User: Fold these one by one.
Assistant:
Number 1:
Amino acid sequence: MRYVDATSVGCGEALEVGQFWMSSYSVASSLAIEVTDASGGAVACGGTVAEGEALRVAVGGVGSASFNIGIAGATFESGSCGNARSYDSEADLVAPAAGASVTLVAGHASGYGTVYITESCVLTSSAAAAPSPAPS
């Protein structure tokens, strides 16, 4: 057996239900990924964001816990594993080019024991709105 908490899951290990960490198999979390835009507005999973838009990702409803938020299709502004993982309670990213999808998933644990895995949150980027012409 090996001791692995949510912050030390290897870069090549998938954040998914059924992985064996900390003497037990990871299970589905009742919590969800929460995404907000630069103004603090909620961005719904399954929704569309403008390319280049600044976003913040967090796991809603978790108090004291260790985190491992993973991303595919983009990178966090800072983190581990080539910025594909963040061990903080929230992480920032910039939406990729139009047409690209970003998939987010998180693992969390409140110490040695079960690691809980959120459902994936997928966002799709669209072309940024063109600026309005200046009034004449």
Number 2:
Amino acid sequence: MPLFLIALSLVYENLEVNHMNKLTSKDEKRKLILDYAKKRYEQENHPVSKREIRSIFHLELYNYFKNIFDMYQHLGIEVPLCYCPKEYAITKILNYVQNKSDKRLYPGLREVETVLEIHLWTYFKNMRDLYSKAGIDY
């Protein structure tokens, strides 16, 4: 089902289309965004971006949520690390490397990047930096 049809069906279910911004409260708009993100994730198994929300609803995501990660936490959906705050992503990466090294499997650059779907250079200088912060000899 095309995106705009999903959005329109949600709008028609909950609100009047012509006066959406004037008649709805902040909580109703927040619920509308959450419903859309949940339906989209269930149908396509793909997280919604802030640009998509802005283009469909003409609403700014940051007026209703702290960030996109906060929105997905309200839904209880696990999202890729690229949508997470940097500190949260670093702890997830370190936990992954520590868990693998406990099994005596030491992941390389490609494995970390493909399994966690990240660019390691965004979070660490190099592999030596990653392993030293994880407390593992490189």
Number 3:
Amino acid sequence: MGFGPYYSKNMHSNAMMYSFAATNHRAVNELTEMQLRLNGSFAEDGSVHASVISMGAAYLPLTGDITPVFGANFGFGYASGKQIKLSGGFSGSAQVGVRFFRTAQNQMELSGRYESVFKGNDLGFPAIYGIQLAVLL
């Protein structure tokens, strides 16, 4: 479960967004994991919202309690707002962050993410980006 501030690109809004995510992560081996992620973001003024469901992988190069995280996910997403048409279709995201308590069953992560829907509107591909703090159960 994660939350954090997000912003939008190509969505006719400069308002800060609130992002909430649920991620299921499973170790593939000592350095990689698979992820199934659901993210929903909405602007504080109600002008835009976006959701993404995706599957991907993350690389954790260190085996200690604290390690960098690099990941990529692909799936389906949509973006909508008062001044744009609904854009829905394939989506992709990139993640860079730090994982804490990696050797414990419950972990914590601070990461930056960029998520985009690959179906454009009049401004280009809608995207959301920001920072999330997550507790991984």
Number 4:
Amino acid sequence: MSDQTLCAAGTSNLARECRDLAHLCEATSAASRELDGRIARTVFPGLVDLEELEIAVWRYGDGSRVRALRYSGEKAAAATLVPPGHWMERDANLPDRIWIYGPGSDDAVSARHVLEPLAISAACLRMHARLKGMSPSR
């Protein structure tokens, strides 16, 4: 298999994981550090090369640590998942729905959850899936 084929397969797997995590965010009932860790590993795939010390905490070779933000429980952390050049919108009449828009595109993705950080995380993950070449399923 060529390097280009391997890269395409890896991108496809990341896109699928983003899409699956978006569904999981919408289906879960509460914030979870396990979910935060899965989101971090998917959005920042380089984390898989680090030693995992505990749920959502990794160690670099030099001993320093990196911890996943609380994407599923904090609005500000979830908002960091908005891809560069994209923006998030919320309609006051639909408080449980979040839309993510991209540059030059009227084609937004959306997600719903009564817990805003989970709705934001799900919508952002759908946009990441689209950017990686997979239909975000909404």
